[in-house]
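Weekly structure sync, notes
Attendees: PL (lead), two postdocs, one rotation student
Agenda item 3: pending single-chain targets
PL asked that the sequence for the first pending target be pasted directly into the notes so everyone works from the same version. It is reproduced below exactly as submitted, 200 residues in total.
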Amino acid sequence: MKRRGRLQGLLFFFFLLPFSFLLACSRNAPPETSPAAAAPPAAAPPSVAAAPAPGDTWKDPTSGLTWQAAPTGGPLKWAEAQTHCASLRLGGFNDWRLPTISELRSLVRGCPATQNHGSCGVTDSCTTSRCWKDACKECAGQGGPGPGGAYWPSELSGDASWCWSSSPVSDADGAWSVGFGDGQVGRRYINIPAGARCVR
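Predicted structure, written out during the meeting:
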């Protein structure tokens, strides 16, 4: 019995007493003011959608589509551009994709022939090489309303060069793309890099 009493006393002295002391100290301690305590919280992991930064995205009031305000990923081959858009996390969304040729043409401004419903015959419903006409290259370089004369809306930015669509040329090698520096619609070989402006 004496032995049990000593064991309980030792247990209290070595284990419970220090724990209760630490608990009491932590309740009465002033808040930490060290630089580590003042550091901002860590960034959210990539799988968590972050709030959009101003200007990251732009919703086209004409089509209702939401676009990247500026392309990301750099010049990419066609398959890389599709993968890039499918894995993009931007503006709190993760359902981005590479646009079809008609969706990409819906961004063209200032070049009536290559705007949607213009005389250029390349659309989602006509993707053969026979759909391409001279009208698909009708506009002059740097004559659009966008920054630097780009043939896209003034709300968008980026390099006004060729951008991929997800639409392959159905009877030949390549995929359809739009050159926003001169408003052209054209066929591009899939291993020649171009820009990717993702849409949702």
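Discussion points:
- The helical segments are 2-28, 35-38, 78-87, 101-105.
- The chain has four helices and five strands.
Action: rotation student to compare against the earlier draft before next sync.
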